[in-house]
Amino acid sequence: MSDRSHVSVKRRQKRHFRVRKFIVGSAERPRLAVYRSNQHIVAQVINDSTGTTLAFASTYDPVFKGSKTGNVEAAKRVGALIAQRAKEAGVSTVVFDRGGFAYHGRVAAVAESAREGGLIF
User: Fold this and answer.
1) 91 with 84: CB under 8 angstroms?
2) What's the DSSP call for residue 43?
3) Is the pLDDT confidence value at 1 over 70?
4) Which CATH class is domain 3-116?
5) Domain ranges in the chain?
6) For a tag site, which of 54, 57, 80, 81 has the least CB within 10 Å?
7) pTM (2 d.p.)
8) Rounded Cα gap, residues 12 and 27, in angstroms
């Protein structure tokens, strides 16, 4: 890892910690956390009071095998998948945690697709 990328990771983590002071998932409103890398995107619905993951979807799933995973279309599919799995787990309302990433591109695509899938936030 180059010195420059290390700095950008630290800056993102600093933003994430700053936001997480206010965003806390509970049993009534769990946290929809999004993580984005260059090639993949991950979304989880987390109950922070018990520390459990209620639903999980990512481009690592076998559903995405053989398709591109680092684009907006894949992020939209992850958003729809996390909404479906959250509904199956009995979750309808969440708090959105963008993970220190800008609400743009793939992160926004996950959020919009999850909203279209029926999650409220």
Assistant:
1) no
2) E
3) no
4) alpha beta
5) 3-116
6) 80
7) 0.91
8) 27
Which residue, among 65, 59, 43, 52, has the nearest Cα to 114 in the 3D structure? 43
CA 116/CA 97 separation, integer angstroms: 17
Tens of pLDDT, residues 60-101:
999 999 999 999 999 999 999 999 999 999 999 999 999 999
Q: What is the mean pLDDT of residues 36-52?
A: 96
Question: Which tokens sit at 101?
Answer: 């990433």
Element (H, E) at 44: strand 41-47
φ/ψ of residue 26, rounded to 5: -120, -175
pLDDT value at residue 5: 74
Tally of CB atoms within 10 A around 8: 10
